[in-house]
Amino acid sequence: MTLAAVHHPDYSFDLPANHPFPMAKFRVLRRQLAAFDHRIRWHQPGMANRSALESVHTGAYLDALLAGELDHAAQRRSGFPWSQALIRRIRLETGGTLLAARLALAEGIALNAAGGTHHAHADYASGYCLLNDLAVTAKILLSERRVRRVLIIDLDVHQGDGTVRLLADEPDAVTLSIHAARNFPARKAAGDEDIELESGLTDAAYLEVLSSRLPPVIDRVQPDLVIYDAGVDVHTADRLGHLDLTDDGLYRRDRYVIDTVRARGIPLAGVIGGGYDRDLEALCRRHGQLFVAALDAVGK
């Protein structure tokens, strides 16, 4: 069996060499995943339109963001200097997650080789997140009545505070976040299901928490779609994480989530989430664990 996946060459664009965000990782990940091209059917997204973005973001924020009129403080909070290439990238990324979700509903599972911008809020950017692809996707599919309930499983090392707040008034979109307690953001949002982890947690302890907490949430929510943020900043070598998972732990985490969701007949759309190692080859091998786990799951 083959796996549906989404990528666009413009997920990456050039940033200054000293910029802390590893923008080239999307290009490197796609190159590494070429080894699986015989088993992956690649789809290219279009840019998310203004109407889709307005499902969660304010018109005033979008006006300023799209026109390049964010002030210096707002750009600094976003983590990026404004450019047309940046706007194209974030709209493609958001369109990519929405496309992956549509593919998942049709085929059972699909992945976006980007996405997980869970710190973007209704009217401001934060933590390298300018548009919230997770919340946009949930709101659009609910408004189209493509799904009755959506569960967002966020296993990035940071809580997705933007996603939580954007969906706080949407009872049919439920968030589950398992994240490091002592990490960004300093002020956590009050999500539907929040599980805070102590720093330094290793594979076995992490997977024990996951296996005890995930199934009951899925069975209670009974979603028609799961959106899975598979951030790899939980890895022991990540610059911005405080957990100690290994490459094998990442694979086992991703495989457990995929198998647990698929065993219940629920479609799953996955995004790669955060990861900040300066060693791009190593970082992208970690992101690639999501794709390996998905390929193993569909091929079994």
Automatic annotation (TrEMBL):
Keywords tagged on the record: Hydrolase
Q: Name one GO biological process term.
A: epigenetic regulation of gene expression
Q: Gene3D superfamilies annotated for this entry?
A: Histone deacetylase domain
Annotated Histone deacetylase domain residues: 19-279
Pfam families for this protein: Hist_deacetyl
Family that this chain belongs to: Belongs to the histone deacetylase family.
Q: Which PANTHER family match?
A: HISTONE DEACETYLASE 12 (PTHR10625:SF19), HISTONE DEACETYLASE HDAC1-RELATED (PTHR10625)
Which named protein is this? Acetoin utilization deacetylase AcuC-like enzyme
Q: Which organism is it from?
A: Spiribacter vilamensis
